[in-house]
Specification:
124 residues, mainly beta, globular
């Protein structure tokens, strides 16, 4: 079974940056499309970014495009989310997820495996 563990969350001031990491185990990491989602209290989980198995295509939510960058290192079984110019409204638990096909990268329902999440708090 694939296991995913997020790290890198924390407290940052508005306008600051964080780099999240998601380490995978229990499967062949290079077979999976990887995604990042976030969920704030009382809100639905929303798509943030995704990357195809070999890193050839990336996808971003409109709200983060130009500020966030998703990348992966399959040799390290790790996907990253570089978050720049963070805003207070982006305070949320950030989750990484994996799915075995490269279609539907923006849909949470399409993902097979999920990490436990890492808290990102952006202060104003």
């Amino acid at each position: 079974q694939v296991q995913l563990v997020e790290s890198g969350g924390g407290l940052v001031q508005a306008g600051g940056s964080l780099r999240l990491s998601c380490a995978g185990s229990g499967g062949t990491f290079g077979r999976y499309t990887m995604g990042w989602f976030r969920q704030a209290p009382g809100k639905e989980r929303e798509f943030v970014a995704a990357i195809t198995p070999s890193g050839g295509w990336t996808y971003y939510a409109d709200a983060v495009k130009g500020r966030f960058t998703i990348s992966r290192d399959n040799a390290k079984n790790t996907v990253y989310l570089q978050m720049n110019s963070l805003k207070p409204e982006e305070t949320a638990v950030y989750y990484c997820a994996a799915k075995g096909v490269s279609t539907g990268p923006r849909s949470a329902d399409a993902y097979d495996y999920w990490g436990q999440g890492t808290q990102v708090t952006v202060s104003s």
